[in-house]
Amino acid sequence: MSDLTLPPNESDRGEQSPLSSHAVATEDDVRDWIALLKPRVMSLVVFTGLIGVLVAPGHLHPVLAFTAVLCIAVAAGACGAINMWYDRDIDAVMRRTANRPIPGGRIEAGGALGFGIVLAAGSVLVMGLMINLVAGAVLALSIGFYVFIYTMWLKRRTPQNIVIGGAAGAFPPVIGWAAVTGSVDLIPLILFAIVFIWTPPHFWSLALWANDDYRRAGVPMLPVVAGAKETRKQIVLYSLVLVPLTLVPWYLGFSHTIYGVSAVVLGLGFLACVWRVFTDKQDPTGVSLTNDAPARAAFKYSILYLFVLFAALAVDRLMG
Fold first, then answer.
1. Whose CA is closest to 189, among 249, 237, 240, 258?
2. What is the pTM of this model?
3. pLDDT higher at 117 or 17
C-alpha cells in the first residue's frame, strides 16, 4: 500500500505503527538469542557430526539420524551460550566480540546461562533416550569438556588452551558414529584426531591478526605469550602432522580414491597457505608488515579445508 492511500497524519509522520515496531523489536530479540548459539561455529560442528552419521557402518532411520544431528547442533549452541555467559567480561573489551548480545546489553547474563543449561540438558536427554546411551554419554562429555575444561579452566590460564581445548570441537564425528553404531571405534577416533590437530593452526591463524584483542583481554593466546614468530612456527609444525594424518583413513582401507586424492590436494593447499603465513613479511619482533593478510587467508582456507575433506570422505564411502 502506498503513502497516497494512508491518512494524512500517518503519511506525514512516516513513523512505524506500534505493532510494526514491536515486530521489529521481536525480530531483533530472536537474532540476539540465535547469536548466543554461535551459529557460524555451530555449522562446522553440525557438519562433522553429520559426516560421522553418514560414514558409520549400519543404518539409522532418517528421523533418528536427523534427531541425532539436531542434538549435536543444540549441544553446540548450548556451549556457545554458556561460553558467552562466562566470557562476558573479556568479550566486552575485545573489538571482535564487544557487540555480542551480553556485553552489548541486549541479553541478561543470567538468562543466557539458563538458556544454555536448558539446551545442554535437553540435547543430552533426547540423544540418550531416543538414539542410544553411548551417543548421549559422548555428547555429555563434549559439553562438559568445552564448558569446564576449555572455557573455565584452560582459556585464561595457558597458551595451550586451543591445543588441549581443541578436543571439545573434535567430538562431533565420534558422536555421529556412536549414534549409528552404539560404539566408539578406531575410525571415529581418527576423525577426532584430524579435527584435534587441525584446530591449532586454524585458530592460531585467527589469533595472529586478533592478537591485540587477546592482549587487551588478558587471554594468554600463543601470539601473546610466545610471540608471532613462534606462533607461525607452531602453525607449520601442526600442519605437517595434520596432512599425513588425513591420509590414515585411506591407508587403512576405510576410504578409497576420491578421499585419498582429495586429502592430498587439499593438504598441499593447506601447506601452501601456512607456508605463506610462515614467510610473511615481518619486523624484527615478528609482527606482520602486511596486516597479517596471509594469516587471514589461511584461517578462511582452513574452514573450507575441513568442510571439503569431510565431504570427500562421505562421498567416497557412499559411492563405495
1. 249
2. 0.89
3. 117
